[in-house]
Structures are given as C-alpha cells and as structure tokens.
Amino acid sequence: MALNQTPVENYELRDPDVRLMLRVRDDDAAAFEELVARYQSRLITVLEQLVRKREQAEDLAQEVFLRVFRARKSYQPGAKFSTWLFTIANNVASNAKRSLARRREVNVSHRAQGDTPTDPLDQMALAASGQMPTRQLDRAERAEMVRAAIGALNERQRMALLLSKFEEMSYAEIAQAMDLSPQAVKSLLSRARCNLREVLEPYIAEGIKPGREQ
Asked: Most Cβ neighbours (<10 Å): which of 34, 47, 102, 111?
C-alpha cells in the first residue's frame, strides 16, 4: 500500500467488488445485480454446508443480499468485499441455527442429491481419492463419505474450512468474518483438517465406512 493511501482507498483500488459495492451505495441497481451474480452460487454453497438444506440455504442467501442492500448507505470498505459479505452470511446462518434450536426442529435427513459435483467438500474428497490410487471411489460412495466427513465437523470448523479452501481467505480475513482471532482460526482449521483426515483416509484407502463394521 502506498504511503499516501488510506485503507479505504487501498481496498477501493485493489478490489473490483468493493468498487461495485460503492456504486451500490450510490443506488446503482446494475452494480447490485452484478454482485449478486458473482456471489450467489458461492454463498449458497457455503450456507448449505452450514444449515444442511438447499432450500434454506437459498432463503438465507436472499436474506444476506437483502442485508447488504439495506446497509448500502453506511457501507465503508474496511475489508475485501468478500470478507464483509461472509461476515454477514456467518451472522445470518448462526441466527437461523439458533432459531431452529429454540424451536427444537432437528433435521437429520440427507439430501438425495448429495453427490453433486459442484459441492466443494465433494471436490475435496475427489482430490483425496486421486492422491490414494489404491482405491477409486464412485460418485455414490464419494457422496456418502463426504456427508460423513461433514458430520465430523462442527459449524465453526465447517465455516472456517470453506472460507479457507474455497474462498481462499487468509487467517486474518476469516477471523474478521467469523469474529475470532487469527490464532483461533488457525486452531479451528487444524482441528477441521484432522477430523476430515480421520474420516476420509480409512474409507478411501480400505473402504471402511464411518460408523460401520467393514
């Protein structure tokens, strides 16, 4: 950053999405539509991993974008746009899960289409299987394995992992989005990777399904 640039000016210069959001602040509807187009799919993917239901994730994504629009007049680019957006998303998802917990509505079902190839944790499983050529997984097996791996992670671990691996955020950016310290994020990611490895490796290597006898 140049010495004569403020942090706000730096983000405006470096992040095209910040520039779009500043246009939204000035009531540019086309700029808002462009931000929605850029982030809607990614946002739904992250939210779906947190709330486990596609339809609810889509509803929550709409809520996130509604909050973005309502906050447009007070927007100040103190971070990358994606960091600010996923801060809102994390809050929206957390509020939704607390609301469900208060109503004791526990959903333990799995989606029949859990093997969609655009699922980021499905992609992780596929990459892992490629690194272990002793056993190749078909899509149905991979979907079952990924669901088990997701179940091994708590909500905060899933959020940190998704932001790190698939949004490519730094520890500092994830910390800002999740209202944690960078050290806490580092610890979360370490535990998440260990948990994933414990679930994924035995199944990929030898076909041992989580929670079942071989």
From this structure: 47
